[in-house]
Design goal:
- The protein has 663 residues and is of the alpha+beta class.
- The chain folds into 4 domains: 6-36; 52-224, Penicillin-binding protein 2a (Domain 2), CATH 3.90.1310; 311-596, DD-peptidase/beta-lactamase superfamily (Beta-lactamase, 3-Layer(aba) Sandwich), CATH 3.40.710; 601-663, Trypsin Inhibitor V, Chain A.
- The chain contains 22 helices and 26 strands.
- The strands form 8 sheets. Strands 2, 3, 4, 5, 8, 16 and 17 form a 7-stranded mixed sheet that branches. It has a 5-stranded antiparallel sheet with strand order 10-9-21-20-19, sandwiched between helices. Strands 1-6-7 form a 3-stranded antiparallel sheet.
- Strand 20 and strand 21 (550-557) form a beta hairpin.
- The protein is globular and about 125 Å long.
- The model is unreliable at 593-597 (pLDDT under 50).
Length: 663
């Protein structure tokens, strides 16, 4: 009989218990893996065994209102490698060829080819020509796996700088970063596709399932309200004005259709090349760009990318008197705008112990009607109107004209106005607001408010996109005009427009006259900040008065040229230049036939494709002048060909106008 030692029995029981615990732990672990974490692990295994190569969708095209392309995507290629699928003896050869074709660093390329990873990107946005060169080499070397050439898209802007702050640009991943490209990114970008393939841990193929192709869905197209011809005209005269008047802080011009809120043009100077948005954009910056640190570069770039017409606020100055006049008429404070002697300018007015002067305090305007007060831009008269309305009533009109909120335009970065709260507005503050100072609004807010005066009293929300076109069906969806509120009556509107016409025909805005057209306007000059010794000069225009089709606002920041900084002398002439070209282009009928004979008009000829010498001769015969961009003494005018012109062929302009040409 065998006797088992008690201590041995005890050890066996302990061992059996431990084994049992281990088995139970394994069962518990298996249950957790299978029942609780099974789905997550399955997904991880699928991701590990499935190699996905993204296929970028083609970004939607952006058109102007006439159908001209402003932004489009061209087809390019993306080259990548699956290191595990490239034979060891071929890796160096592959790396060498890739670095040669795409002008890459060989050592960095070889490092990617040698990596123990499933996929490595070699080159993006590759032109078809280079991709085909790689395909030919792969065929010659009988390389069928390990190198992928996938279709991609690259954003291209055919007009370079045109409307740059409106359109915006895209990053390397085709994502919109600014302007319309950013605001409508989800509409334009579409849905990415993919190529799926089962692989092992090294990237080698598993099984015989082959590749699964999921097609990308292209983005939808956009049709803008911007008219490329009007935009070109506006940018041309804005650039001229900023250079001629030495506007150290640039400027902007907005052209709006008051009836539907369409922005026909919106320009900011300086601008930048959408095809190279990170490059230096002025000659001064080009000289220091290579030595400037990144922080300085970023600050400069962000400044030029900014659409100042909607992102920056300013004191509107006397252009704002159109709002005060409208409110006073609507309230019945004035019924007869031509009643002589209803007001009297003595050179200034005392408000709560503070004397506020008229700009012509040294020779007061004396007895005036409301029309004359607006023509003379007489501050004391508008201060008096503000006092009679009172803070509460005046603020109600600020609200009606949409000046206490953003306009809601479909562009990113819109700023709001800066007014004192109604309960903090004292008599002096009300006085300064009445003639356009000591508060800030955006240029777009003013254009939108005055458009309601031009259209009979409807505050219309401004817009830049007028339609969306489905990329798959081609169906066009028009975006409806949005009327936000009623500001003033049609009767008041007609009276204010009549006074604005007098400002241009006889008053401070007479430099904006265009023969044959009835134009209304208001000039403005204001300080750019407190004690900065900088000024903002502006001109607000409406045409034609009998049936307003366009409202324009020219805003020039800190003009320091010999012409001074007064709105009537600096900004109003720019308004006249812009009107002289866009009104004939829009086929606006001439209302003042007595003046038509004074200025002969001609149609712009087609000079594209001609030598500069031939083009100059042709336009001179028609009484026009050819202006060559970046002209130099070394330019060979006989053999240099004009590639682009503004205005375009067929547009009617005044004799003596300039035709701007690029080569």
């Amino acid at each position: 009989m065998v006797k088992i030692n008690i201590s041995t029995k005890k050890r066996m029981r302990i061992m059996l218990f431990v084994v049992l615990l281990i088995i139970l732990a394994l069962i518990a672990r298996l249950g957790y893996i299978q029942l609780i974490n099974g789905k997550n692990l399955s997904e991880m295994a699928y991701e590990q065994q499935t190699l996905d190569r993204a296929i970028n969708s083609k970004r939607g095209t952006i058109y102007d209102s006439t159908g001209q392309v402003l932004a489009q995507s061209s087809t390019v290629e993306t080259v990548s490698v699956n290191p595990g699928n490239i034979d060891k003896e071929s890796k160096e050869k592959v790396a060498k060829k890739l670095s040669e074709i795409f002008e890459l660093d060989y050592e960095k390329t070889l490092k990617k080819v040698l990596k123990r990873s499933s996929i490595e990107t070699i080159a993006k946005k590759v032109d078809k020509e280079k991709a085909n060169e790689l395909r030919k080499w792969m065929e010659e070397e009988n390389i069928t796996t390990g190198i992928n050439i996938d279709e991609d898209t690259k954003r291209y802007y055919p007009n370079n700088n045109l409307a740059s702050q409106i359109i915006g640009f895209c990053g390397s991943d085709n994502q919109g970063l600014d302007g319309i490209e950013a605001k409508y990114d989800s509409t334009l970008s579409g849905t990415k596709g993919a190529i799926k393939r089962h692989t092992d841990a090294k990237g080698g193929e598993i099984g015989e399932e082959g590749e699964t192709y999921v097609a990308a869905v292209d983005g939808d197209d956009l049709v803008l309200t911007i008219d490329i011809n009007i935009q070109s005209i506006v940018e041309k005269y804005l650039k001229e004005a900023c250079i001629d008047n030495i506007c150290t802080d640039g400027g902007n011009i907005i052209v709006m259709n008051p009836k539907n809120g369409d922005i026909l043009a919106m320009a900011t100077y300086p601008d930048y090349n959408l095809n190279d948005p990170y490059a230096a954009y002025t000659d001064e910056l080009k000289g220091i760009w290579d030595t400037a640190d990144q922080a300085e570069k970023t600050k400069s770039l962000q400044a030029v990318w900014r659409n100042r017409a909607i992102t920056d606020t300013y004191e509107p100055g006397s252009t704002f008197k159109t709002i005060t006049a409208s409110a006073a008429l609507e309230e019945g404070l004035v019924t007869d705008i031509d009643k002589q002697g209803q007001f009297c300018c003595t050179g200034g007015i005392e408000v709560a112990g503070v004397r506020i002067k008229c700009w012509r305090y040294y020779r007061p305007h004396g007895a005036e009607s409301l029309r004359q007060a607006l023509m003379n831009s007489c501050n004391p008269i508008f201060i008096g109107l503000g006092q009679k309305m009172g803070v509460h009533t005046y603020y109600s009109y600020l609200q009606k004209f949409g000046l206490l909120e953003k306009t809601g335009i479909d562009l990113p970065g819109e700023a709001g106005s800066i007014f004192l709260a109604e309960n903090k507005m004292g008599p002096v503050e009300l006085a300064t607001v009445s003639f356009g100072q000591r508060f800030e609004i955006t240029p777009l807010q003013l254009v939108t408010a005055v458009s309601s005066i031009a259209n009979g009293g409807n505050l219309v929300q401004p817009r830049v996109v007028k339609a969306i076109i489905d990329s798959e069906t081609g169906e066009r969806t028009d975006i409806e005009t949005k009327v936000k509120s009623q500001t003033i009556s049609k009767e008041t509107s007609e009276k204010v427009l009549s006074m604005m016409e007098s400002v241009v025909s006889e008053g401070t805005g007479k430099n904006a006259k265009v023969a044959g057209y009835r134009i209304g306007g208001k000039t403005g000059t204001s300080e750019d900040g407190v004690n900065t010794n900088k000024y903002v000069t502006s001109f607000l225009g409406v045409a034609p008065i009998e049936d307003p089709q366009v409202v324009i606002l020219i805003t020039l920041y800190n003009p320091t040229g010999e012409g001074g900084h007064q709105g009537g002398g600096v900004a109003a002439p720019v308004g006249g230049q812009v009107f002289s070209e866009i009104l004939p282009y829009l086929e606006v009928s001439q209302g003042n036939q007595d003046e038509v004979e004074q200025v002969e008009q001609v149609q712009v000829p087609n000079v594209e494709g001609l030598s500069i010498k031939e083009a100059g001769k042709l336009v001179k015969e028609l009484g026009l002048e050819l202006d060559i961009e970046n002209e130099s003494e070394e330019l060979d005018k006989e053999n240099t060909v004009v590639t682009e012109q503004t205005p375009k062929e067929g547009i009617t302009v005044n004799k003596g106008s300039k035709v701007y040409a690029k080569y």
